[in-house]
Amino acid sequence: MLKKYFWLAFAFLLGVAACLPYGQAEAARARQDYATVLMYHDIKAFPLNSFDVTEKDFQKQLDWLQENHYRTLSMDEYIDILESGKPFPEKSILITFDDGYEGVYTRAMPALIRHNMKATFFIVKKGFHLKLVGYPCLSRREVEEMAQNPLFTIGSHTLTHPDLTKLSAEELQKELQESKACVEKITGKACRALAYPYGFSNPTVWAATQAAGYQAAFSIACVDPQGADTRYTIPRIYMGMALGKNDNALFKKYIQEYARMPAEMFAEQFGPVQY
Predict the structure, then answer these.
(1) Is 14 among the domain residues?
(2) Can you give the residue range of the structural domain that contains 153?
(3) Whole-prediction pTM value?
(4) End-to-end CA distance of the chain
(5) Is residue 54 part of a domain?
């Protein structure tokens, strides 16, 4: 009976938080005040899906960032600047990867190390050791190794990669808190950031994410109805095959226009590669 009342109380508190104008609980920054954030999935020699990026294109993208004096941020640096209220350094950028595919270990990580660039990897607990067709996932040992490198941060992408907006209060808390605890057990470090599965979130999810102890959360599109993104609705540029065409022309354009890109340009795309 006590457990029942606990979950009722938790749901009530989330509902109250969700009804408040979110900016009252957390001072919102306009998107132009954030550092540019990139979202990759897998790096492949031969892409299978439009969300893949070729190893060759990824190398060129890192080369261009380095040649143009961009500074990659660790997740700790990114969140610390958010909390300080100070502006981000000019040309600072946050590189992120979702899902935890093996290609980030075999292809992305070595390239990042060669360029001395930082990145954050959002992992799904259920993904450990999965051998999806064409998309084998990271092993726990590989995640542990990545976490030991000072260039890299491990973040949460939940336990099972559900649409968080469709969960009960109990299910939502479980996905957020247990995945956070899993990352912290593996890395021995605080898990400060979450990436929403599919980029889906709403005010209830934002409130639960904050209550679970995360200090930042990343979506895909700009979702704040008032036009100012809070630290729990940070948009990311979707990195896929299309951005590598024409000598990475779209990649360069999106990097330079992050602060003023229309919401539809953040839309995630899936589907077979069109050769």
Answers:
(1) no
(2) 27-261
(3) 0.85
(4) 59
(5) yes
| Residue 235 resides in a domain | yes
- Cβ burial 7-42 (10 Å sphere, 16+ → b, else e): eeebbeebeebeeeebeeeeebbebeebbbbbbbbb
Decide if 4 is inside a domain: no
Residue 139 has pLDDT above 50, yes or no: yes
Q: How far apart are CA 21 and CA 218, in angstroms?
A: 19
| Beta strand spans in the chain (E) | 36-40, 42-44, 52-54, 71-72, 92-99, 119-123, 131-132, 135-136, 152-156, 193-195, 216-218, 237-238
pLDDT given at position 273: 40
Q: What percent of the chain has pLDDT over 70?
A: 79
Averaged pLDDT score across all residues of the chain:
83
The enclosing domain of 175 has a CATH number of 3.20.20.370
Q: The tokens of 185 are what?
A: 């057990």
Q: How far is it, in rounded angstroms, from Cα 55 to Cα 112?
A: 12
**Count of the separate structural domains present in the chain:** 1
pLDDT at 72 over 80: yes
